[in-house]
Amino acid sequence: MTLIKIKPASRTENIKYAVRDIVALANEVAKTGKEMLYLNIGDPNKFDFAPPAHLVEATYKAMLDNNNGYSPSSGIKEAVDAIERDAVKKGISNIQDIFVTTGASEAIEICLSALVEDGENVLTPSPGYPLYTAVAAKLQAIENPYYLDEENGWQPDIEDIKKKINPKTKAIILINPNNPTGSNCKTEILKGILDLAVEHNLVVFADEIYDKLMFDKNKHVSIASLNPDAPVITFGGLSKNYIVPGFRIGWGIMSGKAEQLNDYMEAINKILRARLSANHPEQYGIKPALEGPQDNLEAALVKLHRRRDMTVEMLNAVHGISCVKPEGAFYAYPQLHIDKDDSHFITELIKATGVVVVPGSGFGQKPGTQHFRAVFLPQEEILEKAYKAIGEFFGRYCEEHNVTITQ
Questions:
Q1: CA separation (Å) from 128 to 18, 181, 271?
Q2: 68, 266, 370, 385: most buried by Cβ count inside 10 Å?
Q3: In terms of domains, do 173 and 132 share one?
Q4: What residues pair up with 205 in beta bridges, in sequence order?
Q5: Sign of CA dihedral 208, 328, 202, 135
Q6: What local confidence, expressed as pLDDT, does residue 407 receive?
Q7: Above 80 in pLDDT, residue 17?
Q8: Measured between alpha carbons, how far is 232 from 227 in angstroms, rounded to an integer?
Q9: Residue of 60, 95, 64 lying closest to 80 (CA atoms)
Q10: What is the DSSP secondary-structure string of 291-337?
């Protein structure tokens, strides 16, 4: 009997996730016994960060109280109410719906699935988090990236967004603070994005998962707070701010004019009901996290601030590498001023040094530029060793591969 291979759906062909894809190579190198220095995944729990005790205790108590069944599809009331109060503090009004999801990732995927038809498109930031392009590929949407301007602190390029809007554009994705660059959008840029969204009847997807991780007394402005009538879905969660990515607890906040959003809101809720609910006991950690003591967050920011400064200083000291100072989150996105593909550089870097970072091609970048993403969550001694290794390797790499430094 002839064995016939099971054919996967064509919608999976263009799904890529660079953050995890690079791990296969790292695992092979690790098998050789080389010391590995992982600067590739934004998981604070793998380093010297832990969640606030009161968040964990509330979740544990919920389990002991047997809140272990299904929750309401949009989340438990005390969590939804706490999310709303936090949103109002940030200036978000005209809120039409709030829903708790299995991480912000599920909220994003549900909202895209309820909005985009085959052949339509959403504007995604480049550089940007690869989840959006992966979900868009699965939905058979057309990729439509807009560029962030490195020379302007990685701010969204409003003129580029204008050029990219077409009759099949349904939404503008904004990641603020941005992953992978750590940039924080200026208010005038946010207003420009909202103006375009209102003019072209587009939904703004505002990914604000890092909104409390800000440096240098920078203020984060929620884009939804700038126009209560604009159709905006603000995404947040516990993962990054409160150091529990494994809890998989996120949410979406829909704001804008009810009459414009009602049908779309019902489509989202159909999907929410069909998938039953997010993790139930972990939802009891939302209110304590948002409204309880914030000293855990403050302590994390002290460490991250030092590590951000070390990252920028050491990478900018390497001739041929430049790094814009991140204003939030825990990522840096240095440029490699070389006439060689960044994926090749990163592959050789991992094999030679054990330093694991992610090539810029996995996040998007202007044609002709090369970058990589570094996560500065690890302790200072790890970062110092990794950045020294990158600096020493960079010179050898350029010499051995006849690479021209273009800076």
A1: 11, 8, 26
A2: 370
A3: yes
A4: 173, 233
A5: negative
A6: 75
A7: no
A8: 9
A9: 95
A10: HS--HHHHHHHHHHHHHHHHHHHHHHTSTTEE-PPP-BTTEE--EE-
Q: How confident is the model at residue 13 (pLDDT cuts 50, 70, 90)?
A: confident
pLDDT tens, residue by residue, 265-312: 999 999 999 999 999 999 999 999 999 999 999 999 999 999 999 999
Tokens encoding 33: 């016994």
* Beta-sheet pairing, 169-175 with 121-126: parallel
- What is the residue range of 315's domain? 10-50+295-400
Nearest to 322 by CA among 334, 310, 340: 334
Q: What is the pLDDT of residue 2?
A: 81
Are residue 315 and residue 357 in the same domain, yes or no?
yes
0.90 exceeded by the pTM? yes
Q: How far is CA 114 from CA 100, 106, 111, 117, in A?
A: 16, 12, 5, 9
pLDDT over 80 at 12, yes or no: no
Please tell me the distance from the alpha carbon of residue 132 to that of residue 15, in angstroms, as a whole number. Answer: 10
Number of domains in the chain: 2
The Cα 278–Cα 272 span in angstroms is 9
Chosen domain end from 241, 271, 291: 291
Cα 71 to Cα 67: distance, rounded to the nearest angstrom: 8
Q: What is the CATH number for 141?
A: 3.40.640.10
Q: What is the mean pLDDT of residues 365-390?
A: 96
Output 343-351 pairs: Cβ under 8 A, ≥24 positions apart.
344/401, 345/370, 345/372, 345/397, 346/22, 346/372, 347/25, 348/393, 348/397, 348/401, 349/390, 349/393, 349/397, 350/22, 350/25, 350/26, 350/29, 351/25, 351/29
Bridge partners of 122? 143, 171
